[in-house]
Amino acid sequence: MLRNREIREIHEAALQVLEEVGVMFESGEALQILKANGAEVRGSIAHIPEKLVGECLKKVPSSISLYNLDGGLSCRLGDDEVCFNPGSTASWYIDENGERRRPFYRDMVRFSQVVEKLPFLQMQSTALVIQDVEEDLRAVSRLQAVLEASRKPVVTGVFREDDFDKMKNVLSKYTDFSRKPVAIFDACPNSPLRWSRHLSHSVIECARNNIPSTIISMPMPFICSPPTLAGSLVQHHAENLSGIVLAECAEPGAKIIYGGSPSLQAKNPLMSHPGVLKLILAYNQVGKYFRIPTHAYLGVSDSSMVDERAFVESAYCLTKGKEAGVNVVSGPGMLEGENTQSILKLVIDGFICENAFTRESSLINRVLETIDSKDVYSYCSLLEKEIKVSEDTLCLSLIKEVGPGGSYLKPSYMREYHRIFSSEFSMPSARDFQQEALKELFEEARREAALFLKEALRKL
Fold this sequence. Notes:
The protein is built from 17 helices and 18 strands. The mean pLDDT is 95. Helices cover 48% and strands 13% of the residues. The longest helix has 23 residues, at 436-458. The termini are far apart. Strands 9-10-11-13-14 form a 5-stranded parallel beta sheet. A 4-stranded mixed beta sheet has the order 2-3-1-12. A 4-stranded mixed beta sheet has the order 8-7-18-17. It has a single domain (59-382, 426-458), classed as Trimethylamine methyltransferase-like (TIM Barrel, Alpha-Beta Barrel), CATH 3.20.20.480. The chain has helices spanning 4-21, 28-36, 50-59, 105-116, 138-149, 163-174, 197-208, 229-250, 274-289, 308-324, 343-358, 362-374, 379-384, 391-394, 396-402, 411-421, 436-458; strands at 23-25, 40-42, 45-47, 64-67, 73-77, 83-85, 92-94, 100-101, 124-125, 154-156, 183-187, 194-195, 213-217, 256-260, 295-297, 328-330, 334-335, 340-342. With 460 residues, it is α/β, with parallel strands linked by helices.
């Protein structure tokens, strides 16, 4: 995707953004920490100097070991080692009967028990926003449900500032997490360039408690990030660097994962579009250039149901993530842009993850061969095109004009940049998914997954 020279150009542009534009922090504590370490603070904006960024990058561990609840090493995040886990925080759930509904505590337990039986999903996640508990207990309750049902490490995160202490207390009942980390806490800056109070607090407290944090920047070109691949990469990198600096200033050597969840605007955000996949594979290169463990949301289908489109998107994107060595791949089971989790799709995606390691499934390999040979959804042709990195595409002047917490939706921006750069995010034909061969392969996969799920649930 990117040459080393282009990665350096993106990095230099991000350094300019951090120092000249700055990042908004709603947390007074975060601003105090940054100021004490050399950042210039003006109101709620921290201007982070290049020297401080460089010092903090040197402190980030290049690998992270995660443990199961029995104390055994479960996975190592670094180099090109890959660990899959279900996508997190779905508001809707499609159960084993095919009913789409709001999820409950028992669903989180049941879902986690099935994940436990899928060996190539090496980590759990707090995949559902459970509805049958009080709102201020939802984060800790879903973590409790996972820990009840599984021994695997878990990816989770807070909804409110006071969630962290509650969740830390629950973890401490199961393991000495400060010595052997069993959980990753996700923290998502609000694009562009803004950190909420509760997620700043999460990054700080994770650093102090030896809990890894994943910085999940969420660029959406034309909406909350620049309308070019290169420009969105600059903003994505600046947001990740801001989280890294905060964590390393709070506790040198803090464990950080360089992550993201980009999308394109639609009725539901598009997360398996070829342009989004290209953005992910490119930022993964950036993270690896700096020897930081990486993360991506992959396998999140843009379909609203478990169908041939969901199967094809997951097969291609999850496989590409494994080939690229993305260290933490979140997304199995998800539909509708992180809005819905399906337990049937979870099993299908578990099979895809297994094949990404073994390449022994003739069924999934035939799907991948069909995608390549017929350029389904323009995946191959769009990924082959170079990312243009130039003064125009880096969009520094636009990022400066929009500023932290601003919007890229002004008509003048849309007209100018859409005319020049919209081809980077052109919409392929969804009719490609309706090919008869793909439908037949999906039906075969659905039958296999349904049998596995039925047997797994029978034994619970």
